[in-house]
Fold this protein.
Amino acid sequence: MKRANAVLASTACLLFATGCFADQPAPWQMDFQPAASPIMSQVRWFEHYTLWFIVPITLFVLALLITVMVKFRASKNPVPSRTSHNTLIEVAWTIGPVLVLLFLAVPSFDLLTAQLTFPQKPDVTIKVTGTQWQWNYEYENTGASPLAFDSYLLKEQDRAAAGKSDKAVYPRLLAVDNELVLPVNQTVRVLVTAAPTDVIHSFSMPSFGVKTDAVPGRLNETWFRAEREGLFYGQCSELCGKDHAFMPIAIRIVSEDKYKQWLTVAASDLGKANKALMAEVDRPAPTVDVAANVAQ
């Protein structure tokens, strides 16, 4: 019995594990990734809020279906009722859904308003261009020749040279050669498009609550403000061709000082800037050494 309970407990842990504070997909994940922006916090709240309506309604409809199948089956009720109208039921099934939609509409409109109210003076503006099958990032207002670079899926044979052998930090099919580096607690304006002769892509970053189509010939706009540092992963969320699954997005959020240092070096040598930033960010935290008692 104890062994059976242990198996059940471990299975439950696997089913409901969400990779808390992991800014990438986790095995058996049942919920959204942990929020790293105010918008995503609202998205997570709204999703949990709707479950208070969805679950009872689903159970109520299931109970009605079971009641109908059991109570009104042919063997139990050979002469069916010929009642065609019931005023009370008709009023209930009209008013009930209207009230539910009202309770869902008000917070959803608040969320949409927050998402679509763009800050007037963003701290950083990034232009993102989707191409089969990589992303191009361009930092606006960074001088006469803005910093721009491509971001490709990191190949397995390139991990050692890039210093990204740790698959827990740089997971397979999500890690890239050049991450988009941005400062923490600053408003980032994102201009999203696709190459003129390309197809539609979609720039999606789950932890930030961002998902915007990259349409050829059109410039879409979104924004976010990351509230904590870390390495965040997303993917193209629009079927764009045979390598759609190999078009990841990686954003590294760092402190403002580290961001400025990286931006200065990246203007002349992107590879050197990335390695310096990785060496500073990925190094293990210093351990606390206990002072020896030298008293005799």
User: Anything to note?
Assistant: The chain has six helices and ten strands.
